[in-house]
Structures are given as structure tokens and as C-alpha cells.
Amino acid sequence: MDLADLAIFKAVAEEGGIVRAARKLHRVQSSVTSRIQQLEASVGTQLFLRSKQRLHLSSSGEVLLAYADKLLGLAAEAKNAVADGRPRGVLKLGALESTTASRLPAVFCAFHERFPDVRIELTTGTNDALVAAVTDRRLDAAFVAMAPSRPELAHSAVFKERLVLITSLAHAPVKRAADVADDSVIAFPRGCAYRRVLERWIGDKDLASVRVLELASYHAIVACVASGTGIAIVPQSVLATVQCVLVAVHSLPKALSDVSTPLIWRSGEQTSAVVALRELVRTTPTTGRSATSSIGVL
Known about the structure:
Blueprint lengths: L2 H13 L2 H8 L3 H15 L4 E4 L2 E4 L1 H25 L5 E7 L1 H6 L1 H11 L3 E7 L2 H9 L5 E3 L9 E15 L17 E3 L5 H10 L1 H5 L3 E3 L3 H9 L5 E4 H4 L8 E3 L3 H4 E9 L5 H12 L12 E2 L1
Parallel strand pairs: 3-4, 3-5, 7-8
Antiparallel strand pairs: 1-2, 5-11, 6-9, 6-10, 6-11, 10-12
Helix pairs in contact: 1-2, 1-3, 1-4, 2-3
């Protein structure tokens, strides 16, 4: 078993077949088939099962894939470390949509200027989806909404956020949860940490009985709120990125509104690019215009 065999095995697992893997690796199909057969012979077990013209990992294959991801990642990290000390290669990064819109443009600009040999592949998603992706090694690091309590993940708080409640301009003042009891809720799908803040404020039991419109874009959420469709909780920094949309902004209890955005990565597996990103985020200003009044209009 060598790294080349593991790379071919990983490609077949990800592509679900020899043909697509061969195309991805720019190899002939017979070569890929032969290497997989040799790998199975060397480990003494079947790694793939065929079903409906697609290859699926066997239980042994699932175990080997986890090790392959780790070994290939460590090999790439070692190569980068001994090259010239500068980060290079691909940084698979995840982020909440709110962080991507309001915080990361300045970070990416500075990062690309300082580390031109690193290509960032960005994936956006909910807090829970991003945590799972880092844990499963599909991402190197991610900006999430809540620091996970998992020993395999490390984290560092990088941004401070203030969550606010937004309503249409015609909505009555909001001082407590009862003031929005009859409103529909507009939120990201389950797995969003900010949605859980809204659930805690309104109450899980009460939220279960109201209408929830699930959207996957803050621009869409803010636009729907402005039209009177419902209410939403958003990071205050996001409102500065939404132009020409008028909403009323209401304060939440401090215990719920003040949150931090942590950067997470796998413990003991920081790549040089992740180390560089952590340092750069710490020193790069990202804040912009934001709403400050308890009931303001943007």
C-alpha cells in the first residue's frame, strides 16, 4: 500500500466508479482497476461492492477511506512544510453565509495578497453541517456559530457578532417574545445555530406551533421580512451588506444577542494554510457599517 494507491482508492470512492475516477485522475480505466485490485489484495479484504452500475464502499472500505484522507492530508502538509515554509495548495474552508457576506471579503483579499500559492475552496452551510464536514475531513477548517464540544476539534474565537430581531417597518415595537407571537418565523433550515437562539427566545414549544419559512439566503430572508412575510434573527453585521432594503431592527436580551464566531479545525492537524488564516484573521479588520439603535431603519 502506498500513497498513490490510496489516492486512486479515494478517487474511486468519491466518484462512485472506475470510469469517472479514471477520467478525474487522467488514467486509463484498466490501470485504475488494476491498482484497486492490488490494494484489495494487499489489505486482504474487499473494499468495494457493486450495485446498479455504481461502486459502494464496503465496511472495510469505509474504514480505509478515513485513514486514506488522513494520510493523504498529512502527506500534503509534510510536502508544504518542507518546501519553503510558505502555505500552498488548496485550503478547503467552510463558513456561515452571514460570515461569508460580512466578514470574509476583507480576509480573502488580504489572504490572497499575502499567500498567492493557496487556492481557497469555500463551502457555505449551517453550523451543524460545517462542524460535521470538518470532523469528516471534508473541510480543513470552518467559521461556525458555536464552538463544538468535541475533543477531536479545536477552535479559536475570531469575530464578535450581535444578533438582532428584524421586522417590517409596519410592525409594532418588539420588547418581548410575546410581541411576535402571531408572526411567521423566517429562518435557515434546522442545523442553524442562530435559529436555535430564536427558538430559545420564543420557546421551543411556541415555535413548534408557528409557521416557519425556511430559506437559505440572508438576502432572501431580509427581503421577505421587509415585505411583511415574517420576522427573523440575523447578525447585525449582515444588515450592512443588504442594500436598499428597509427593515426595523429590534434588540434582543444581551445573553442571547452577543455571540462569537469561532474558527474550528481538527485537533493536531493544522495545515500551514490554516495556521496562516488564523493569524491573518486575528489582525485583519473586518467590521463595517451596522445598525446601532434598538429600533432602527436601514
